[in-house]
Amino acid sequence: MMPYVTTSYVLPVAMDLDVDEKLLDLAPTPAAFGASATGRIDNKNEDSRMYPTTKVIIDADLLAPIIRPNALQFFEIHQQEINAFWSWLSRKTYLAINTMPGDETTLDALGVIDSVILSQHDCSWKLRLAYVQLIRVTTILKSLIVKGSRRGRLRRTVGKGNASILMDIYVRAQRESAAPSTLRQQVQKRLRLARRWADLIGGSIFLAAAYGSKADAIM
Q: Among residues 60, 140, 147, 125, which one has the least CA distance to residue 94?
C-alpha cells in the first residue's frame, strides 16, 4: 500500500536547552496552527510571520492499527475546535523570555496543563495536545533555568542539576495534597507519557486528532 501524504500544521517546539531568546518570545497564535496552506498569519500585536507547514508521510500499513479509520473526516469536522483549543492552551501557558523559573507565571502555566490532563480523558485529542504542550513548556523552562543560572538570577543548591530544579518546580505546581515523594513520582510518570505522545505526534495537530483509541492503549 502506498504511503498516505497529507499537509499538517506544525507545533513549533524549542528542543535545545540553550534555545535562542527570539524563539522563546514567539507567542503562538490561532492562525499559526490553522491558517492557509502557506502558513501566513495576521496578528494585531505582531508583524506577519511565515510559519512553515510540513508534509506528514503516513505509512498506512504501519500505522493503520492505531489511526482512526475516518481520520481526515474527523479532523475536518473538528478542525476549528481543535485550533481554538490549541490557541487557548498556548496563550494560557505562554512563558516570556524574562520569566523567572518557579514564579507564579510558571506554576500557573503548569497548573493549566495539568488541569487539562486530569480532566479531559473523554476527549483524546485535547489530552494529547496537553501532553505535547507539557513537553514544550518544560523544555522552555529548562532553557530559562540554564539562562538564569548563567546570569546569576537563579540560585541553585550545590549538586542539584537543571533537571532536578525543573522537577522541583513541577512538584510545587501540583494542587493536590500528597507527600512530596508521591507528587514527584506522579509528575515523573506524567512527563514520561507526555514525551511518548510528543514523539508519536511529532508536532502535528492532525496526528494529535488522527490517532484512535488503540494508540491510547499502547501508551
A: 140
Domain limits, the chain: 4-218
Strand, helix or coil at 142?
Answer: helix
For helices 124-150 and 162-172, what crossing angle results, to 10°? 130
Q: How many CB atoms lie within 10 A of CB 59?
A: 11
Question: What's the CA gap between 55 and 41, in Å, rounded?
Answer: 19
Distance CA 138, CA 169 (A): 10
C-alpha cell at 170: 513541577
* Cell numbers for 53: 507547514
Name the residue among 107, 132, 145, 140 with its Cα closest to residue 190: 132
Handedness of CA 100, 89, 115, 160 (dihedral sign): negative
Please say whether the beta carbons of 43 and 29 come within 8 A. Answer: yes
Residues 205 and 86: beta-carbon distance below 8 Å: yes
- Cell reading at 1: 500500500
Q: What number of other Cβ atoms are within 10 A of residue 194's Cβ?
A: 23
Cα radius of gyration rounded to whole Å, the chain: 18
Half-sphere exposure of 97 (CA within 13 A, CB side): 12
Low pLDDT (below 50) residues in the chain:
1-56
Q: 8, 71 in Cβ contact below 8 A? A: no
Specify whether the backbone of 102 is left (phi greater than 0), alpha (psi in -120 to 50) or beta: left
| pLDDT, tens only, 97-110 | 889 988 999 999 99
